[in-house]
Amino acid sequence: MEENKTLETTAEVREKTIHESIEVRMENLTKEFSDKTGKITVAVNDFTVSIEAGKLIGLLGPSGCGKSTTLYLVAGLLKPTAGRIYFGEDDITSRPPEKRGIGLVFQNYALYPHMTVRQNIVFPLENMGVAKDERNALAQEMAELVHIGDLMERKPNQLSGGQQQRVAIARALVKKPKVLLLDEPLSNLDARLRLQTREEIKRIQRETGITTIFVTHDQEEAMSISDEIVVMNYGLLQQKDHPQEVYDNPVNMFVAKFLGNPPINTIKGFIKNNSLYIEDVNSASLELKDKTGILIEEIKESDQEVYIGIRPEFFKVTKDGKIKAFVEIVEHIGRDVMAIAKIQDTDVEIRALVPSDTKIKANETIKFSYSKYFVFNASTGERIK
Ligand SMILES: Nc1ncnc2c1ncn2[C@@H]1O[C@H](COP(=O)(O)OP(=O)(O)OP(=O)(O)O)[C@@H](O)[C@H]1O
Ligand SMILES: [Mg+2]
After folding, report:
1. Per-residue confidence at 76, pLDDT binned at 50, 70, 90?
2. Which atom of ligand 1 is nearest to the CA of 34?
3. What pLDDT is stored for residue 19 in this prediction?
4. Claim to verify: residue 254 and residue 291 sit in the same structural domain
5. Which CATH number covers residue 48?
6. Are the C-beta atoms of residues 217 and 67 closer than 8 Å to each other?
7. What domain range is 57 assigned to?
8. Best of 35, 36, 67 to mutate for ligand 1, by most ligand atoms within 8 A of CB?
């Protein structure tokens, strides 16, 4: 009974609030900033990406990599140094922000403190010639969509952080924008609320079908909420793909390291005569031809220095494992055991996540095998296997 009701309500909401979905495309987008001394920062560097209509894209990367700048270029709050932006077939590069049909939500909700929730949501519709009754009906509709319909007469300081953020989202949606832009919308919330609110955002996005760019530096958040992830570093596009694909098939060492917690182990190694080695500690400073190490795989690749990438969960403790390591610490974390161990004859410390029934103790030497590994060129970081 209860379930039926929910379904009906969702269908009604969808019918009322459905937005025209539109593709967003950035072509060779570049944004340079210059400071007073003339020093130039390339915040966004020849960035080309297209976002399918109706998709939620997580724009992910470390602090300073150009995420917000990219979002503000799409919003029209910043002018690109070069490149074009398209909404569907329309080149909107020179269009002012208010004519782009975007809804923008920032990290600090920026609600008007002296206004009620209703007034905050209605605000973008004032000066637009929308009749008062219709304005209020639209505000109510958006408030229902984000599940704050019963809080309309409260002031922002009478709301929780998550509720305030939903008011900000309702306000961004009230003009029925074609594109929703969210800049770290959850970072002011505590862990629990962040989890709840991100599920809310996902639901709202599904119900409206609005093309959405969600900026975050939190890989777990991006993985869980996004249809696709766009990974960025130093203003450059690194990879765009489904979250699982980015995790399973990173294009380079940066992406491999940025996704996953605990992070992937990257072990210094080399390829010589079609064999892959872990470099031993005594040959670390030598030239490639003189290096020695622990042979772990045959590999058909040219001679080069590499990093071997092994995610903690790829490790297994087995009698015939090729990686001998001295276990320093064993931590029981529920379902799994995390072992921190040092690979013999190296300085390399690895983290392995193994099932909790694995026989493993600190201060003993054991052998690890691995179900999967990546190989990255040591100087470019490009993945070669
Ligand atoms: N108005 C500006 N003038 C000069 N440099 C700027 C300006 N805005 C941003 N930058 C620089 O551009 C780069 C990208 O900044 P941006 O704010 O886009 O990063 P971000 O990925 O959003 O980082 P964060 O996760 O910390 O919010 C940074 O090096 C930043 O210092
Ligand atoms: Mg930012």
Report:
1. very high
2. 4
3. 60
4. no
5. 3.40.50.300
6. yes
7. 2-258
8. 67
* Residues paired with residue 42 on neighbouring β-strands, in sequence order: 32
Nearest bound ligand to CA 73?
1
**Protein residue with least CA distance to atom 3, ligand 1:** 33
Six token digits for residue 118:
């209703």
* Ligand 1 atom, smallest distance to 35 CA: 4
Alpha-carbon gap, residue 120 to 318, rounded angstroms: 61
18 pLDDT more than 70: no
Instruction: Calculate the alpha carbon distances from 319 to 209, 267, 292, 337, 353 in Å.
Output: 52, 21, 24, 18, 17
Percent of the chain having pLDDT more than 70? 95
Ligand 1 centroid to 255 CA: how many Å?
Answer: 20
Q: Which residue among 258, 291, 312 closes a domain?
A: 258
Q: Nearest 5°: phi and psi at 171?
A: -65, -35
pLDDT-derived band at 61, boundaries 50, 70, 90: very high
Does 237 share its domain with 300?
no
- Does one domain contain both 215 and 290? no
Distance 198 CA to ligand 2 centre (A): 18
- State the distance from the centre of ligand 2 to the C-alpha of 341, rounded, in angstroms: 36
CA distances from 254 to 57, 74, 87, 224, 302 (A): 19, 25, 30, 20, 22
**Alpha carbons 121 and 175: distance in angstroms, whole number:** 10
Instruction: Quote the crossing angle between the two packed helices 2-17 and 191-208, to the nearest 10°.
Output: 60
**Residue with CA at minimum distance from ligand 1 atom 17:** 68
Closest CA to 176 of 6, 55, 22, 10: 22
Q: Residue with the nearest Cα to atom 31 of ligand 1? A: 64
* d(CA 117, ligand 2 centre) in Å: 26
**What string of DSSP letters covers 291-314?**
--EEEEEE--S-SEEEEEEE-GGG
Do 277 and 304 meet the contact criterion of CB atoms below 8 Å apart? no
On whether both 154 and 245 belong to a single domain, the answer is yes
